Amino acid sequence: MFMLRVYSLPIILLNLVVAVFCADKYSREDFPPGFVFGSGTSAYQVEGAASEDGRSPSIWDTFSHEGKMDGETGDVSVDEYHKYKEDVKLMVETGLEAYRFSISWPRLIPNGRGPVNPKAVRYYNSLINELISHGIQPHVTIYHYDHPQALEDEYGGWLSRKIVKDFTAFADVCFREFGDRVLYWTTLNEPNVFPLFSYDVGMLPPNRCSFPFGLNCSQGNSTSEPYLVAHHLLLAHASAVRLYRKKYQSKQLGFVGINLYAFATYPLTNSTEDVLATQRANDYFVGLIANPVVFGSYPDIVKKNAGSRLPTFTNQEYKQVKGSFDFLGINHYMSIHVKDNSASLKSEYRDFLADMAVEMIADIDSSKYEFPIQPSGMQASLEYFKQAYGNPPIYIHENGQRTRRTSSLEDTSRVKYMHGYIGSVLDAIRNGSNTRGYFTWSFLDVFELLGGYEPCFGLYYVDINDPQLKRHAKLSAHWYSQFLKGRPVSSDSDGLIKLGKDFSLLSRRS
Ligand SMILES: *[C@@H]1O[C@H](CO)[C@@H](O)[C@H](O)[C@H]1NC(C)=O
Ligand SMILES: *[C@@H]1O[C@H](CO)[C@@H](O)[C@H](O)[C@H]1NC(C)=O
Ligand SMILES: *[C@@H]1O[C@H](CO)[C@@H](O)[C@H](O)[C@H]1NC(C)=O
Ligand SMILES: *[C@@H]1O[C@H](CO)[C@@H](O)[C@H](O)[C@H]1NC(C)=O
C-alpha cells in the first residue's frame, strides 16, 4: 500500500466522487455462487523468523537492516511462522473462506536458485494443510517484493534477464510441492508499482534511482531501469504461467494470474488535456502490465514516450505474454484526480514519471490519518477493467482502511470503509463485472512496506511490544465475521451502535 505525490483537494471534489449510489444494506448471500471472501498478508510482512531454519536475507532484510525503515524490520514481525495454527484458528472464528499469503523465495530457495530448503517446504505444507483442513482456500502469491539478496548481489536481481529462469524455477518448486492443494496462484504482486517505486523514485528496495530523479540513491538509472525491470517482470510472469499450463494445470486444475495496484482515476477538470492525462496515467500505471498480458503489447503512449528505453518483445515472447492469465488480481485503496503535466515531455532526459507526464492528486484529507471513504472508486476501477480489458475474471486482492497502530479496538472507520467498498463490489457485479472474490488487507496488523509498524490495516491488533504477540479482534473483525456468517449489514448509526454493543460484550467475555 502506498501513496504517490500527495496533495489534498478541496472537499468539493471529494463529494463529487462520493455522492454516487452504493449498495448500503446487503448480505453475504447477495454475492454470486462461487464468490469468495478472505483476507491477506505477505511473507516478509508477517512471518518473522527471518534467520531461522535456513532462510537467507531478501532485499527487504537488507533495506530494513540498513535503517531505511527507521530501524524497524520484519525480523520477528507478528511471528506467523510460529503462530500459524493460532492464526488459522482466528480465521476460522472470523469465518474467512480464503487466506491470501505469499511464499518467501529466500526461505524456500535460500540461494535464489538451486537447493530447496526442506524446512520451508515443511512450513508451507503445514500452513496450507491447516487452512485446508478448516475449509479455507489458500490463494498464494509467489513473489511479493522479496527476492533473495543473493540474486541482487549476483546479477542485479530484476535488472537482469537471468532472473526469468530463476523465477520460473522458484515457481516450479511452488507448483510441484504445493499445487496439489493450492488452486489459486498469483505470480507477482504489484509489478506495476515495483518498477516505479524501486527503480525510478528509489524509495523501496533495492533502492535505485539516478540524479536528478528520485531520492538520493547511490546507484541506479531512473530513465531506463523501470522499463527494463517491468519487461523482465512480464517475461518471468509469462514463463511461470507457461510452465504451469504445460506441466501442472491439467492435473492440478488450478488457476494462475497476476496482481496490479489500481487507483480509481478521475480527470481534475474536464479539459481535453486532463482527460487525456487520465488515460495516460491509466496506460502508464495499469496498462504497462495489463496491456501486454491481455493484448501482447505495451500501450502506444508508453512506446512513444519511452522510445528506445522500452524493450520490445520478440515474436515468441509476444505469444507467451499475451493471454498469460486466468484472472487478474487488483489492489484498490483510493481514488485520485489526474492533472496534465505534458510540460515534462519537453525535457529530453526523462524518468518514468516524466514520461507519464501527469500529476496524480490523492483525494486525501491531510488532517486525517485514515483514508477517505470513497466506495464508488471500487466500482469505477472494476468498470475500467471490464471495459478496457474485456471483463476478465478479477479477484480484489487488497482493499482496506489505514489507521495508526493502537490498542483501541473500536476501528469504526475500518468498518465503514469495508462496508462501503464491499457494497461497491456488489454494485459492480450487478452491473456485469466478472469479479470473483474479495480479500481485505490485512488479516493482522503487519509490518507495512510503507511505514513499518505505525500504519495498520488489520482486522486483528497485535502489540509488537508484547512478547507473546497476542492477537486481539477489532470491531472490524467482528463486523466482517457477522457479514461472513450471513447477517445482513448496514452502515447506518443504529447498525454500528448495535455492532459495538455486541462486540464489547464479546470482548469482555474473552
Ligand atoms: C545522500 O546520500 C549520501 C550518501 O548516503 C549522504 O551522505 C547525503 O547526506 C544524502 N543527501 C541527502 C540530501 O539526503
Ligand atoms: C541511463 O541509461 C540511459 C539509456 O541506457 C543512458 O543513456 C544514460 O546515460 C544512463 N544514465 C545514467 C545516469 O547512467
Ligand atoms: C465533467 O463533466 C461531467 C459530465 O458533464 C460532470 O459530471 C463533472 O462534474 C465534470 N467534472 C468537473 C471536474 O468539472
Ligand atoms: C454499467 O455498465 C455499462 C455497460 O458496460 C456501462 O456503460 C456503465 O457505465 C456502467 N455503470 C457504472 C455505474 O459503472
From TrEMBL:
SUPFAM superfamilies: (Trans)glycosidases. Coiled coil: none annotated. Keywords: Hydrolase, Signal. Residues 1-19 form the signal peptide. This is Beta-glucosidase. Gene3D superfamilies: Glycosidases (3.20.20.80). Pfam families: Glyco_hydro_1. It comes from Hevea brasiliensis.
